[in-house]
Structures
1.
Amino acid sequence: MSSLPLSQTHNTIKPDHSLAITALQERFGKQLSLNATVREQHGHTMTWLTNQPPDAVLTVQDKQEVAAAVEICNQYEMPVIAFGIGSSLEGQLNAPYGGLCIDMHAMNAILQVHNEDLTVTVQPGVTREQLNHYLRDTGLFFPIDPGANASIGGMVATRASGTNAVRYGTMKDVVLALEVVTASGDIVRTGTRAKKSAAGYDLTRLMIGSEGTLGIVTEITLKLFGISECIGSGICHFSTIEDACQAVMLTIQMCLPIARIELLDAMQIKACNQYDDLSLTETPTLFVEFHGTEAGVAEQAKLFTDIIEEFDGRDFAWDTNEAERKRLWQARHNAYHASCALRPETSALSTDACVPISRLAECVSATAKDIEASGMIGPIVGHVGDGNFHVLLLVDTNNPEEVATAEGIIGRLATRAIEMDGTCTGEHGIGQGKQKYMQQEHGNALILMEAIKAALDPKNILNPGKIWPEALSVS
């Protein structure tokens, strides 16, 4: 884990950005804040990485203001970091070299809904819950659900995923087109509302997951999906994590069209019981959801029952009751806060990895044994239908031994996943926290990434100090 060393090795002597700030004040007036508390809030990170606030925070209303701000920053070579809701987990919002944070929360308009085409165009400050609330009377919904009520722009930047990914995919699968402000302050479009295209480079997917290092997204066109006639949710318990993972693997390999299949280990169930006043059996547990017609959902549930019986799955109960379904998934969405409450005096280090489904049981089991042997509290929860799982380590950052132990667990998990032909992060992104694994995962492909970054952002003003290993220079 590179979080603490990284925050210490970054140059803390920031360049003089006074000329840029003066120009921004002349252009934007009271929209620009130099308040220390506001700046610190916008360097916020939901993990233990050191807070590194920007020099100023600009709240923008439209794309023209974003473009004007970036143009000024480019002129004076001042870093620019885009901010949505602040729910990223790997320090993507920190400003290690100072600079301007562009707060996009006021750009929260839903611009166009094309029901017949199943598409919607939104501004980046729209949140996933806001969008689905707006769509509630159309019979359509936006399926990407990372748990937090993240902004759509932030979800694009980190290539977000979530509980529905096993059926509906991730952000790279549902974004049709983007409008992006480049490092020079130009506004460009990267696609159309057509469901496919063979016209040139796929700039849309180049921007997705780039964590604000290649451009700032100001408009997003998304695919929508019809709400199923029937939705059934349920839970089942297992004696071991390996049995639960084996059941998941067979479910996917049997091509069962399951919509959600989430793993919570015994410690995570304990946390959920305490936080959400539940009474679930504290063993490895799968939360599942089926979408389709009434007959289709019943058939999926029957097939799933047959599968889990092979792995000693027990107490499987499912229902189509909406209130019970919402209660179940609210507990899953509260997993982060529930886990933190197990040891509230500590800091939370949330990390994730993703492996091919055939290696899931091996990777999760090895990780669970590693955490147990360390003596740390580290609940495991995951979108295991696509091989992605999360670990939340609760760490006393004032205790050097605990810090070292946590870094060791995270490092071994990242290496383990990469060696299994997986990735060190399925959805959290690289940011500052996982830079040290980029070389191991990508090898000489980093040369191509570096070339792209240098071409699109030659002055390295767009979210510098993120993604790239310290050994690489992209300035």
Note: The chain is about 35% helix and 20% strand.
2.
Amino acid sequence: MDPSANTPQFLRRANLRAVLEVLRSTSSVTGTDLIEATGLTRATVIAVCDDLVARGWAREADSPRAEGQKGRPARRFEFNENAGYVLGLDVGIATIRVLVADLAGTVVGGAEAQFPRHGGQPDARRRILTDAVDRALEDAGITSAEVFCVGTGVAAQVTGDGVVVPGQPMAPMFDLGLQREFGEVRGWPMLVENDAKLAALAERWRGVGAGEKNLAVILAGERLGSGIIDAGRLLHGARGGTGAMGGLELVEGVGNEDGIAKLARLWGSAALKEGHDGRIRDLVGPKTNRASARYVFEAAADGDPVAQEILDRIARRMARVLALVSSFFDPRLIVIGGAVAASAEALLPAMTRELAGYVAEPPRLAVSNMGKLLVPTGALRLALDYVEEHLLELVPQVRRAMPRGRFPGEGN
């Protein structure tokens, strides 16, 4: 038994954490509510609440007076979600997206920026990224001192300790010196995770997989990657390789990691080069044989038989990928996410039908409704998990409540 377990300091921290957990899980509570929830005495509860208010983690809420009530109403307390903030970053090859959230997970600001064509040099990418972060802070109306943690998603294999595995072709694109920029200069804990794994965290937190304990999320835009949650736990493996799709070259009928958007673009362009003059040609125009994925999906929706055949081929190919994920990890739900998610709805019937031919009890299939905010939302969840684990070690910046912001391009 830990000899420190009965020391006054240990008990005090245990009481603080017990009350904080209750405050974080509800809107506002009275001392009596906290006594019932924690089993602590009234004197201890009131002392802990006063301590949390003084620290900035809690605040007193208005106590409505019942009609005919005499004397002072019971004191009410609530968690101060503005005690600090977290950042969620999605660092892609072409785009950086930043979200800012309070400690309740409410997004209060954000920013987006484009990297130079073909990625650009590390110094230029770092400047663009840090500028986007500063604009997100300004949009949220907060300072660097109020940020507790930064979660960052990258399209690379990352170990469970948050280290980008060296030797990957795209790894240099994400080696931007951010640990020094954010960790040493600004004092922010910097957490790094694979983007598909963050997508899984986001879907389980706020997406179509909310609350699901056995979930797989597949980012299926340009390249395939998956995040796996098993029994409520995000899986990594020895070197972060759980869910990686590098072995698809061994799967008959698949052959590589190409995603839905890339396949639609490649096969649509090939059809144009072969002389297809249907709806894809109408959308693309006469001067190019390069078809975008969007045009292929639009042409299929308009009844173009070639485009429909392309989508059928993609669905049959994806069903083999889903069967592999189902066989290895046995999820109840597989969510298709990434830039192509909105269009992938059209593939669900064929993928579901094909998957049933490979798996005796196939999982349910769905497409993500989180759009471009999928990965940065997962990065927020990663940062919030860190804050919740280290709550009593952090120092809140006490400030007045502020109006809610919004992510640029999103509705209020």
Note: The mean pLDDT is 88.
3.
Amino acid sequence: MHYRRREVEQVRPEIAYDCDVLVIGGGIVGLSTAYAITRAAPGTRVTVLEKEPGPARHQTGRNSGVIHSGIYYRPGSLKARYAVRGAAEMVKFCAEYGIAHAVTGKLIVATEREELPRLHGLVQRGRENGIPVRELGAAQIAEHEPEVRGVAAIHVGTTGVCDFVGVARQLANASGAEIRYGARVVRVDRRPELGVAVRTARGDVVRGRVLVNCAGLYCDEVARLTGDEPGMRIVPFRGEYYELARPELVRGLVYPVPDPAFPFLGVHLTRGIDGGVHIGPNAVPALAREGYGWGVVRPGELATTLSWPGAWRIARRHWRYGTGELRRSVSKAAFTQAVRRLLPAVTADDLVPAAAGVRAQAVLRDGTLVDDFLIREGARAVHVLNAPSPAATASLPIGREVARRALAALGSV
């Protein structure tokens, strides 16, 4: 009897894997990861599952399209290193594939003298990150932006704009990966000795040797489906935008001096690749992970957010800041007033509502807003758990790092 059991085990058929690496999420980070894997290890079979009917439908496709220089981020952090490197690579990638882009430079403007120490801190941070920065007096601001007012500014020449959705499409096409759209993941069966099997809402089952989680707004849920506790939760923040009816008022990109206590950059002015000028975003709590308006409420997702202790700790710690953001959300006059600090000529009639975005912000249990990119590993799994702005700018180096970890996991099985 013992001999027969051993014989049965020996003839058990091998698992038929559909791919070597299974990527969940078809935003710019997931597609960059697929692209990097096939570049680093030709012949590696990669499948990308994306729940939407096309790529880059959420964070990637709903931001201001800015190629960030990296000036804001703590020296030595992943954000600083990957944004500086990624900005140069993104411009090169766009030029190589004929994707719309422009290196415009930008102004960061102090409108009050109290902001000058923070502005000077950005100058120092930029220099530590290897970014060329030029300091401007009040009169010099008008040379770049005649309608903008401030007491001082800095000019950052390496900032630009591009079509990130176009970048995502090109990454998908050039990766050689199998991209499955309309494939919402509902279950993950991860067995360290075998691999991963993922079931989609359609009932399809996809088997891979290694899982990569680039699910953005749902990355914490996918991590838990896999059996890994991420130690954070995504708390969604909606960013609301307006389009400027008189785009001639703004030549390029204009930013306020940000508050270092928050990962948000404040309401800024962005002339995009289409010639239009977007104004925003603010940052208000979203009532759903895809809550692009106050009318979008998903009780289950809201309950998940409210059950996380970190969400309440954010509210207690930053209620004054949050109150101001909410006021600008419900009052166009208040939003206009915020814009007029930079652009006095603007009126409420100049602001035309535009599509909003939602930022997938990782929050720790103690209420800390995760300030850097966060990538963690489990058995046969790599999870990208915090990749908001400047992740689109930094997507090429982020993709290489995630690919390196995924290929290392693949090599160890």
Note: The two ends are 31 Å apart (CA to CA).
4.
Amino acid sequence: MRSLLVYLLLFAVLLPGISPWGTIAYYNLNRDYIARVLCENRDRPELHCDGQCYLAKKLKAQQDRQDKETSERVRNTPVVQLFCEAGTSFSFAPLTVLTDATGLFTYKRSVATYLVDELLRPPRR
């Protein structure tokens, strides 16, 4: 059941990208019919259109429809404000600075020189 849902959602996401390929496949399967009946230039065979004008018109209409749906979706998307900052107050009072910095930082020097000596030795023959 879960895999069916995954495939269904994947198909729904990929469908807008696949739909022009469906139109092109329909054109390739029905090229003779489109050239004989639906082509705008069927009376002028010297143009060798063969229904490509019909294909271009369908692809253009499909692209315009997708652009219109996208722009409507963007326009109708509600704006949700997730964070509202309360009024910020500024103060120019002097900041207090810690003068005793001995407890803030500790430094301990521990260098392992024996590891470096082992790495930097030339190979033995």
Note: The radius of gyration is 36 Å.
